[in-house]
Design a protein that fits this description.
Length: 127
């Protein structure tokens, strides 16, 4: 069973997926910073200083009341839209590169080893 697990982990698809998840987590941190540090201040500037992450409605009285924090949801939605757009652009670029590779004319194949040996044999016979 251990060998089967090793074989499963060593397959290319699993390794590709693991790399994708790690890169995705790092990319999410970058996008979160982009939204929190760059996009939010610009939106706040146009909205009169409103910070979406602080928006919410208290669902009761007192300091321990639950808060319906719809501002955090708005920020998560903005993060998602930015991430989805960047992923869309990456997929579009990869598809364009793949299409260009498929359309590129193939280089003519050189002579095979057998062709070269035949030419050498014929040249030696002609002497």
């Amino acid at each position: 069973m251990l060998q089967e697990f090793k074989d499963f982990i060593a397959k290319g698809n699993v390794m590709d997926m693991a790399v994708g998840i790690i890169i995705g987590a790092a990319f999410t941190a970058i996008v979160t910073s982009l939204v929190d540090d760059l996009v939010n201040p610009i939106i706040s500037l146009f909205m009169g200083g409103i910070d979406f992450s602080g928006l919410g409605v208290a669902l009761g009285d007192g300091p321990d009341a639950a808060v319906f924090a719809y501002g955090n949801f708005i920020m998560a939605l903005i993060n998602f839209l930015i991430i989805a757009f960047v992923v869309f652009m990456l997929v579009k670029m990869v598809n364009r590169v793949k299409a260009a590779e498929e359309e590129a004319p193939e280089e003519p194949a050189g002579p095979t080893q057998e062709d070269l040996l035949t030419e050498i044999r014929d040249a030696l016979k002609a002497r």
